Amino acid sequence: MADIARNHGALLLGGLLAAGLSGIVSVQTIIYFKLYPLDQPILKALVVIIWSLDLTHSGLICAAIWDFLIQDFGLAADIDIIPMALSLTIVFTAILTFFVHCFFAHRILLLSQRNWYLTMPVLFLATCRLCSASATSAEMIRLQMFSLFKAQFRWLFSLGLALSSIVDILVTISLFVLLTKSRSRSLSLNHIIDSLILYTFEIGSLTCAATIVSMICWLTMNSNLIFMGLHFVIGKLYANSLLASLNTRRELRRHRHSHDTAIPALASPRRAEAFFNSPFMDSEIQLQHVQINVEKSITYEHSGSLHTSRN
C-alpha cells in the first residue's frame, strides 16, 4: 500500500512552501523595478526572465499536485505515474538555476579582472547541470513511471543535483577569495566587503544545503516523493538569491556613505571598477564619476624668500 503522507503529503507541503517562496520572488521583483529604474536593460531583462520562469514553474507544480490529489484521487496505484507537469518542473528548475549561476559567474569574471580560468569551470559545470536536468525530464516523460526511471536513470538525476551543489560551492569560494583580496586598510570599504562576504556564504550555503538534502532523500528513500517536494523549493531559493543580491545594493550603498565617503585603494584600479560596477552595489555608483582631489604642498626658495605653493 502506498504511503500517502510521504508521497501526496510531501508534494503538497513542498508545493505550498514553493508557492510562498514564489510570492516572495514576485514581491522582490516589484521592489527591484521600483528601486532601480536606471539599471541596464540587460539586467532588467534578466529579472523579467527569472520572474517568468518562476511563475511558470509554480504553475507546473500546481498542475502536478492537481494530477496527484484531484485527478487521480483515491488511486493509490497511480502514485508511481509521473505526470508531464512534474517532469517539466525539473527542467524549469535547471533553467532558472542556470541563469542564476551565470549571473554569479559574471560577478566572478569582473571581480577577477576577467580571469576566464576561474570563471569557465563555473560556466562549464552549470551547463552540464542544465544538460543533465534536461535529459532527466526527457526520460521521465518517456518512461512515465518512477519505478522505471529509478531503475534505469537514478544516476542521471543524482548527477544533476551533485553538479548544482558543486557549482554553488565553487561560486561561494571564488567570491569569498576575490572579495577577501579586495579588502583594503580603509574601514569604510572593509565594512562593505565583510557584509558581502557574509552574504555570499548565506546565499551559497542555503541553496547548496537544499540541493544536497534533496539528493540524500532521492538516494535513500526509494518508496516516497519527499525528494520531489524538496526539489520544488530549490528553484525558488535560487530566484530569491539573485533578486536579493540586486535589491540589497541600496542598503550596502547606505552603509558605505555612513562611513568615510572617500573610496580607498583596492588591489588595482580594474578590481575597484569591477567592485563598484557590480550588481552587488547600486548601479548609480560609477567609478568614472569619482573625483579624487590630491592636495600637495611644494616648498621652494626663491630670491632669498620662502614660498609655498599648493595645488
Automatic annotation (TrEMBL):
Per the record, a Pfam family? DUF6534
| Entry-linked InterPro entries | DUF6534
Question: Which residues are listed as membrane-spanning?
Answer: 12-33, 45-69, 81-104, 116-135, 155-179, 199-221, 227-246
Provide this UniProt record's keywords sorted from A to Z.
Membrane, Transmembrane, Transmembrane helix
In terms of domain of life, where is this protein from?
Eukaryota
Q: Where is the DUF6534 domain?
A: 165-250
Q: Does the keyword Secreted apply?
A: no
Q: Which PANTHER family match?
A: CHROMOSOME 1, WHOLE GENOME SHOTGUN SEQUENCE, DUF6534 DOMAIN-CONTAINING PROTEIN
Q: What is the protein name given in its UniProt record? A: DUF6534 domain-containing protein
Q: Which organism is it from?
A: Lyophyllum shimeji
